[in-house]
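Milestone M4 deliverable, item 7.
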Amino acid sequence: MKKLFITTAIAALLSVNVFAGDKNVKTEGGNDNVPSYVVSQFQNDFIGAENVTWKVTRDFRKATFTVDGVQKSAFYNLRGEFMGLTENVQYRALPVAAQKTIAAKFQGYFANEIIKLENENNVEPTVYFVDLKNDKEEVLVRVTPTGSVYPFQKVK
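Output delivered:
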């Protein structure tokens, strides 16, 4: 549920703005509606991608894949245009200023999951979403490349 929420949040943020070799394209939920122009664009964007799985929604197409041993997800709009790329990262990948802010503002929370988003937005081409949890609640914060931390949404 949380991954679905985070994916939806990232896809919503992106909207503001692998098929590799002969491997089979797999789709989630039995939906095989990945147009060839989207697959072709993906192939050009991510040469060497392996284990590609597609998820098709009414708003976007998401390819989850592995490249160089790292699992990533690429998002394409309905016209087949690249919207952004996500991957899970370690806490130490966050800017040091953000780590200090999180430690001060969210004492008693731990970082459950951190997603790095690289998108086509020229204002903030890279942002991080950090899922923070404690015994009572869970919140999602957005971290900018400069280390600013902004509440994004309360999860629970």
